[in-house]
Design brief:
The protein has a five-stranded mixed β-sheet, with no helix packed on it. The protein has helices spanning 2-8, 28-47, 54-57, 60-91, 93-115, 123-145, 165-190, 194-202, 206-235, 262-284, 294-313, 357-360, and strands spanning 319-325, 336-337, 341-347, 364-367, 370-373, 377-379, 382-385, 390-394, 402-409, 419-424. By secondary structure, the protein is an alpha+beta fold. α6 packs across α7 (165-190). The two termini are 51 Å apart. 52% of the residues lie in helices and 12% in strands. The longest helix has 32 residues, at 60-91.
C-alpha cells in the first residue's frame, strides 16, 4: 500500500511528516513510511533500467555513478525520517509504561481477589498490592523523568540504541527482588506480635535466599561485564557496531542484523523460567525471600556463562583476501589499469545492521591516497554491490600507476588490512 501511495504521489495538502506527534496521518511514523516507500520505488525503477537521463545513459560507469548518487540522497532522507520516528517513539514510551503498570496492578488485584475466595483476604495480599503500587509508581515516575530518552527503557538501552538482553535480565531480577523485599516490609509493618516480626526478619536471612541473591549478583555482574567487553572490542576494531534508529523488542532475541542468536535466546528463556519459579515461591511463602533451589540457580549461572562466551565469540574484523580486475563477458584479460573496475574479495565488509542503503553508501575504499566511495548497484529487492564478501569499485585516474595499497573502510568505521596491487596506465 505504501509503495502504491508513493507511485501516486502525496495527497493534496499533505506535508512530509516533519511533526513528531506520531499518531497523526502525517506524523513522524507516516513520514518515515512514505520515505521508505518512495526509496523502494526509486530503487526498483533503477534496477529495471528506468529513470536514467539521456546524458548518462550511453555510459555504463556514468549511469552507475548517477544512480548511486540518487539512491544515496534518497537513503539519507529515509535515515533522517527514521531517526525522527525513533525519537518520537522514545518520547511516547513513558505513556505506554504507565498503561502497562496500571494493567499489571489491576491484573494482580483480580488474581488475588479470585484466589482469596474461600481462603479469605490476608495481610500478605495487602502487602503484595502495596508493594506493586510502590514499584509501579517508581517505574512510572522514572519513566516520566526520562521520557525524552525512552522512559523506563532508558537503563536497558545500549549505546547502539538497541535493547540489551543482559540489562533487561538484570533489571527484571532487580525489580523482582525489590518487590519481594517490599512485601516483607509491608507484612512487617502490619505484624502485631514480636514472634511474627522475628519470623519475618528471619525470612531475610541469607541462608533462605542464597540462591536468589547469587543469581541476582551474577546477572548484574554479567550486565556490567558485557558492556565493558563490547566497548573494548569496538574500540579495538574487533567488533563492528552501527546505531539503530530505535530499540525493538526483537533486539532481545536477535543480533544486530536481525538474526536469532542462541546465546541471547537461551539466556532470556532460562532467566524467565527461573523468575516465574521464584514468583510462585514468593506467592506460596510471602514471609521470606524466595528460596531458589541451587539446582535452578546453577542452571541460570550456566546460561549466563554461555551468554558471556557468546559475546566474546561474536564479531570479527573485516579482512581483504584478494583483489582482482573486474572482467565483463567479452573483455580481454590484462592488468589493472586506471579507469577500470576492481573486485575486492574478503569478509565482513557489511557490518550487522548496516544493510540499509544509507549505511552501505558510507563504505569507502582507499586506493593509495585516493578515497573511492563504493557505488550502490540496485537489483530487484536489494543491491548487488556492495555485499559482505565482494566490493566492486573503479580505479580513478588520480591513482598513480605503480604498486599501491587497497584498504576498505566499513560503515562502522573499521579498517581492513592493506592489500597491495599493481596499477598500470
Amino acid at each position: 500500500m505504501a509503495v502504491q501511495e508513493a507511485r501516486q504521489g502525496p495527497e493534496p495538502g499533505a506535508h512530509d511528516g516533519g511533526c513528531a506527534c506520531g499518531d497523526c496521518p502525517h506524523g513522524a511514523r507516516e513520514g518515515h513510511r512514505r520515505a521508505v516507500a518512495a526509496f523502494l520505488v526509486k530503487r526498483d525503477e533503477f534496477a529495471a533500467g528506468q529513470g536514467l537521463p539521456a546524458a548518462v545513459a550511453h555510459s555504463a560507469s556514468a549511469s552507475r555513478q548517477w544512480v548511486s548518487e540518487e539512491l544515496t540522497q534518497s537513503a539519507e532522507l529515509v535515515a533522517e525520517r527514521g531517526r525522527a520516528e525513533g525519537e518520537s517513539w522514545l518520547s511516547r514510551v513513558w505513556q505506554r509504561t504507565a498503561c502497562t503498570v496500571g494493567a499489571a496492578v489491576v491484573t494482580l488485584l483480580l488474581v488475588q481477589s479470585l484466589t482469596a475466595i474461600g481462603a479469605g483476604w490476608t495481610t500478605a495480599r495487602t502487602a503484595g498490592l502495596l508493594a506493586a503500587l510502590l514499584v509501579g509508581g517508581a517505574l512510572t515516575a522514572a519513566s516520566w523523568l526520562h521520557r525524552a530518552r525512552g522512559g523506563a527503557l532508558a537503563p536497558v538501552i545500549g549505546e547502539d540504541n538497541r535493547l540489551s538482553t543482559s540489562r533487561v535480565v538484570a533489571a527484571a531480577w532487580v525489580l523482582f527482588v525489590a518487590y519481594a523485599v517490599l512485601v516483607l516490609v509491608g507484612r512487617l509493618a502490619a505484624a502485631s506480635g514480636p514472634a511474627e516480626r522475628d519470623a519475618l526478619i528471619s525470612g531475610l536471612d541469607l541462608a533462605r535466599g542464597a540462591g536468589a541473591v547469587t543469581v541476582l549478583a551474577v546477572v548484574c555482574a554479567i550486565a556490567v561485564l558485557v558492556r565493558r567487553v563490547v566497548g573494548l572490542r569496538v574500540l579495538g576494531q574487533r567488533l563492528q557496531k552501527v546505531r539503530a534508529h530505535r530499540p525493538r523488542a526483537a533486539d532481545l532475541l536477535t543480533d544486530d542484523a536481525g538474526r536469532g542468536t542462541f546465546a541471547d535466546i537461551q539466556y532470556l528463556v532460562i532467566s524467565a523460567v527461573a523468575l516465574a519459579f521464584a514468583a510462585v515461591r514468593l506467592a506460596r511463602r510471602p514471609d521470606q525471600l524466595p528460596d531458589l533451589p541451587w539446582g535452578l540457580a546453577v542452571v541460570v549461572l550456566v546460561s549466563a556463562a554461555t551468554y558471556l562466551a557468546g559475546k566474546y565469540a561474536e564479531g570479527g574484523r573485516p579482512v581483504i583476501l584478494s583483489v582482482v580486475r573486474s572482467r565483463e563477458a567479452g573483455d580481454l584479460d590484462g592488468p589493472i589499469r586506471t579507469g577500470e573496475d576492481i573486485e575486492i574479495r574478503g569478509a565482513g565488509f557489511v557490518p550487522p545492521g548496516a544493510q540499509t542503503a544509507d549505511r552501505l553508501s558510507r563504505m569507502v575504499v582507499r586506493i593509495g591516497a585516493v578515497h573511492v566511495h563504493v557505488p550502490l548497484v540496485p537489483v530487484a529487492g536489494g543491491f548487488s554491490n556492495p555485499t559482505d564478501a565482494v566490493l566492486t569499485v573503479p580505479v580513478p585516474a588520480e591513482v598513480e600507476p605503480g604498486r599501491v595499497e587497497v584498504q576498505v573502510i566499513t560503515a562502522a568505521g573499521v579498517e581492513t588490512n592493506r592489500y597491495a596491487i599493481d596499477v598500470t596506465d
